[in-house]
Amino acid sequence: MILDLFAGPGGWSHALTVLGARDIGLEWDEWACKTRAMAGQLTIRTDVARYPTWIFSGRILGLIASPPCQAWSMAGKRLGLVDQPLVHQAVADLAAGRDTREQLLAACADERSLLAAEPMRYLHALNTVGEPEWVAMEEVPDVLPLWKQYAAILRTWGFSVWVGILNAADYGVPQTRRRALLLASRVRIAEPPPPTHAQLAEPESLFGPGRARWVSMAEALGWGATDRPVPTVCAGGGPGGGPEPFPSGSRKTLTDARARGTWAARPDSEIVLASQREGSGWTARHGARDNRPADAPTPTFTAEAHRWSWSLRSNNQTNATIRRSNEPAGTLFFGHRANECTWVAEPTVEAAGSTPEPIKITAREAGVLQSFPADYPWQGNKGQMFSQIGNAVPPRLAAHLLAPHLNKPFNPADFTLAA
């Protein structure tokens, strides 16, 4: 079997399902377990730090681990960095068969920090029977030094190991999510999969097959296609609410606007991938409406919509990253109100009426931007769903990483996002 530690709502598991394989996930969070159950994924609800390892001896083909990142993430207090020497000590001790976790945990500033050492407890136990055949681990970039320590140990056990930082956008995920990866194998050379996408499209040449341009939020969500919706601009008190931004008050679709020749997509030359920063006081000037259900489909474009450019603001803080809809999203993270993502509108030409109010992103939209299918069965209230999404591994990235270990081809058509 394939063992998935800290399995979350099923990022790795969904990738395995698409590739024709299955895992068994260990997960503690109640709502993540319910999401996994609705998605048909095998789960043991347990504390990874307390579950016995001997149960899996002689049964494991591959081991996956994405320890909780809250202690290390830029979105939190980052006490994991303070605790890093203790985590390194725990990994070294566990690799030698010494369990000093209780003593080290008492000295940690954040008790979650030591969870990053848990995969070594399983790896040491499995290594005594020559398992697993391969390993895949993922965390925020600041955990890279710890992955390098794991790599040094795994090499002494006969593994080929690669560690480094990968950008999910380079693999077709509509989000520039950078993560520290460890890939290891006993039977093949460990190396990252070749990227399929780039910030700017690269044509096929004698030196390679070329790469497509990064997938934008609009493309992933289906905005701009004749049968796809885009964010509401609130005409006539539509689904997005707020004042009437256009003098006509009409409800024309994007198709109508194209037919009249009044709408045109921004040319690629206008794509700006550098983060934009708002000045202080943004929250005081703008509020975010929260009248869409978490799983609601994105509302429909209205008349004169070409006058407005929609962007995604990553949180309510003054230094929040803002990305236009024709760019990939920035890293999505949730967990408290300061991390709420909102769609904000800016005029592209002189526009009559007031600017549409900011609209909070839905769980469906956030899940798609994490490369989950639009109908993924998220469970819980909005906060619980967003927490799962922000912590999940993008399934499309996971599939690229796992396909070589399973000797399975990666089929981009299996990861169509918009619905």
From TrEMBL:
InterPro entries cross-referenced by the UniProt entry: C5-Methyltransferase, C5_MeTfrase, SAM-dependent_MTases_sf
Domain of life: Bacteria
Annotated spans, Disordered: 277-297
One Pfam assignment: DNA_methylase
GO biological process, one term: methylation
EC number(s) reported in the record: 2.1.1.37
Keywords, alphabetical: Methyltransferase, Restriction system, S-adenosyl-L-methionine, Transferase
One GO MF term attached to the UniProt entry: methyltransferase activity
Residues annotated as catalytic: 69
Family: Belongs to the class I-like SAM-binding methyltransferase superfamily. C5-methyltransferase family.
PANTHER family: CYTOSINE-SPECIFIC METHYLTRANSFERASE (PTHR10629), DNA (CYTOSINE-5)-METHYLTRANSFERASE 1 (PTHR10629:SF52)
Protein's name according to its UniProt entry: DNA (cytosine-5-)-methyltransferase
Organism: Streptomyces akebiae
Phylogenetic lineage: Bacteria, Bacillati, Actinomycetota, Actinomycetes, Kitasatosporales
